[in-house]
Amino acid sequence: MNILVSACLLGVSCRYDGKSKPHPAVERLMVQHTLIPVCGEVMGGLPTPRTPAERKGEKVIAADGRDVTAQYRRGAEEVLRLAKLYGCKTAILKERSPSCGSGKIYDGTFTGTLTDGWGVTAALLRDNGIRVVGESEIETWIEES
To answer: Could you tell me the pTM of the whole model?
Structure first.
């Protein structure tokens, strides 16, 4: 099966802080599946490293006050294009991210407070029928699949 995966979970240093968050369960999936690394933020034209950003309503605002919503939306569209191109039915994405967050994201105050919500890319994928799995749900997803 072809599965979209947040590139940072595969060890790609593309996070806002220039680091990665490799996840052993994601790496184990490579044995049985084709993993397609994506980063909606980079694919939307943002640099690495970059100023942290959080969703605030329908917008994505960087910590310095810049509105980066357009870049996040452009990146989400590119990720969706790849999902369709490769026939992906599932995406394993980095939790809490303003792009990839699934179910809980930071609330836009830059205080570390979580709120119910979806990252821009995660929401677009879901709206297009692609199952979004956060990294804490991987083991459960594997058992169900």
So the answer is: 0.96
